[in-house]
Amino acid sequence: MKTSNHISFAWFITISMLCLLANSQLTTNFYSNSCPNLFALVRKQITNAIKTETRMAASLLRLHFHDCFVNGCDASILLDGADGEKFALPNNNSARGYEVVDSIKNAVESSCSGVVSCADILAIAARDSVLLSGGPRWDVLLGRRDGLVANQTGANVMLPGPFENVGNITLKFEAVGLNLTDVVSLSGAHTIGRASCATFANRLFNFSGTNAPDSTLLDPNMVSGLQNLCPVNGDSSQLTPLDWNSTDLFDSHYFQNLVKGRGVLESDQVLYSSDQAASTTRSIVELYSKNPKSFFSDFANSMVKMGNIQPLTGSAGEIRKNCRVVNS
Ligand code: HEM
Ligand SMILES: *[C@@H]1O[C@H](CO)[C@@H](O)[C@H](O)[C@H]1NC(C)=O
Ligand SMILES: *[C@@H]1O[C@H](CO)[C@@H](O)[C@H](O)[C@H]1NC(C)=O
Ligand SMILES: *[C@@H]1O[C@H](CO)[C@@H](O)[C@H](O)[C@H]1NC(C)=O
Ligand SMILES: *[C@@H]1O[C@H](CO)[C@@H](O)[C@H](O)[C@H]1NC(C)=O
Ligand SMILES: *[C@@H]1O[C@H](CO)[C@@H](O)[C@H](O)[C@H]1NC(C)=O
Ligand SMILES: *[C@@H]1O[C@H](CO)[C@@H](O)[C@H](O)[C@H]1NC(C)=O
Fold this sequence. Notes:
Blueprint: H1 2-23, H2 38-52, H3 56-68, H4 98-111, H5 118-132, H6 152-158, H7 166-174, H8 180-187, E1 194-196, H9 220-229, E2 239-241, H10 253-259, H11 266-273, H12 275-278, H13 282-290, H14 292-307
Bound molecules: protoporphyrin IX containing FE and 2-acetamido-2-deoxy-beta-D-glucopyranose (6 copies).
One 2-acetamido-2-deoxy-beta-D-glucopyranose binds near residues 179, 180, 181, 301 and 305.
């Protein structure tokens, strides 16, 4: 009796572990035999791209985010075509870095043809971009396959926007299995990169019909600087750094900025200043502003979680030859 209990317990453990494995099919060594030079090939392309334009690190990080939130991390954002995600509201004239992804894919194809997915290239590119900008490193999980369809409506519905409040942003993260910690840590990506007037000009002159700038934008130097950059009826594609202290450095200034009322986007500043933040995100912003190490370690953890959103694995999807089109 006792022995048979032990045996069924052993089976229970074995089967539970197999189930766990089936649920987390991505692995760090997925290409170690089929494309042993993969990491070096990607690193070289990213290093060159960032040397040419520092901002590219930010743009590549954002591409992975905008890929994963729509139909999972399946490189659907890379598909060309008028009905693609590229032309959805959050991406049109804003998401960028597609040529760099092409150059990475070309380098990878010439070394190991038909093996590495575009979705995995986006995940490695995001990791390298953060690392080369001075941020944390993490082991990137691999084994995703590429999707067969883009989803423009999905991109419009699933991606958070700069005018949304904490509750709405949180709902969009929860819809893909991410929580409040992930909302705040991943928003810290705005420690690098740029935003256009179109995404924050509403805060500068007549915010919510108050005939005044957003009262949570506390830094007068930023108010006047941004007003000059984005005059009423001005060019809405003008850019400003998301982090005015250290534009291209991946550090914790983003959170120190929020505490001082120096967030560029409304969706940044509400994480600290809004009523909703008091019981949700504010304490996490305060923690990261004082403790850069906890930001770095939570950011790395959240990036792995984000990279695990609904990957296609096994024989689902395909390995695209060209990241812009599905194989014929
Ligand atoms: C929390 C909700 C978020 C909102 C509402 C949001 C919104 C935005 C907006 C409006 C811009 C400026 C786009 C433009 O003007 O062209 C931007 C830029 C950027 N976002 Fe976010 N974002 C969010 C979360 C994230 C996350 C989770 C990441 C990555 C992990 C990220 C990474 C970036 C980066 C790196 C840039 C700069 C891109 C560049 O310079 O090319 N954002 N975001
Ligand atoms: C994308 O932006 C261009 C202008 O750059 C505009 O002509 C086009 O209509 C936009 N596409 C969509 C789907 O909104
Ligand atoms: C597009 O995305 C929406 C929102 O996530 C989803 O409901 C829909 O099923 C997706 N459509 C396709 C074709 O994947
Ligand atoms: C939040 O989402 C609701 C439901 O979609 C919408 O009606 C409301 O306008 C949103 N509020 C903000 C500030 O985004
Ligand atoms: C979010 O999930 C992580 C695990 O991925 C966990 O450590 C963290 O405590 C969670 N945060 C909240 C606010 O539930
Ligand atoms: C400010 O916005 C409100 C509400 O949208 C509007 O009624 C008012 O005319 C605006 N003021 C100016 C000076 O444009
Ligand atoms: C950020 O920049 C402002 C204005 O230049 C400065 O007062 C502040 O000390 C800086 N903060 C950090 C953390 O470097």
